[in-house]
Amino acid sequence: PDAGPQRDRVVTEAEWLRRWETSNIGFHKEQGHPLLQKYLDVLLNGRSGLRIFFPLCGKAVEMKWLADLGHSVVGVEVSGQALKEFFAEHSLPYREEPVPEISGAKKLQSTSGNISLYCCSIYDLSSSIVGKFDGVWDRGALVAVNPCDRQRYASLMITLMEKNSSYLLVTVLYDPNKHKGPPFYVPESEIKSLFG
Ligand code: SAH
C-alpha cells in the first residue's frame, strides 16, 4: 500500500500527554510483547550486561524483563505520568533528578540503578547525554513518530548505536487509507532507506 494518506498527519506532544491522562493507552501491553520473547536471542546475541534503549518507552513492561535479566535499561518518554506508573506498577523505588543538559527534562532512575528513564522528547537526547547502546527495542516507537519526523528519528537512533548493536523493530502492516494512525504504516522500503 501507499503510505501517502498519512504523510502529513501530526500528533502533538500535548495529545500524547492527554492520552495518558485519560488512560487512552490501548497500545500498552500488560503481558509484554511476544515478539521480544521470540527474538530475545537475536537482541542479546550471546552477550550479557548490555545497555538497552527503549525509545518512546511508555510504561513498557519489557523494560523490567530486561533489567531482571541483568541488562541496563534506558528509556525516553514525554509523559512523566507513564514513567511514574511504570515504577509504581512494578513496585520499584526510584529517584528523580534534573538533566543538566536538557532544560525541563527529568531522569527517573530505579534505586537499584539499572533502569534510567528520561522524561523529555527523544529529539532532546544525544549520545553525549545517554551514551550508546548495544541493543534497541523499538515497538510503538518508529510507528508512533510523526511521518515527517521519521528521518530525524532514524538518524538520531543510528548515532545512539554501538558498532555491534542489534535493533529489534516492530511495525504493523495495514491499509493506511482505512486508519489514520498512530501506529502509522511504515513501508518496508522506507525502513530500508531510513536505516540502510
Ligand atoms: N513503546 C511503548 C509506548 C508506545 S506509544 C509501548 O510499547 O508500550 C508511544 C509513546 O511515545 C507514548 O507513550 C507517547 O507519550 C510517547 N512519545 C510520543 N512522542 C514522543 C517523543 N517525541 N519523545 C518521547 N516520547 C514520545
From TrEMBL:
The keyword S-adenosyl-L-methionine applies. Keywords: Cytoplasm, Methyltransferase, S-adenosyl-L-methionine, Transferase. Gene3D superfamilies: Vaccinia Virus protein VP39 (3.40.50.150). The keyword Metal-binding does not apply. GO terms for cellular component: cytoplasm. It catalyses: S-adenosyl-L-methionine + a thiopurine = S-adenosyl-L-homocysteine + a thiopurine S-methylether. It is an enzyme of class 2 (transferase). It is found in: Cytoplasm. Its EC number is 2.1.1.67. S-adenosyl-L-methionine binds at residues 16-27, 56, 77, 121-122, 139. Pfam families: TPMT (PF05724). Coiled coil: none annotated. This is thiopurine S-methyltransferase. It comes from Fregetta grallaria. The gene is Tpmt.
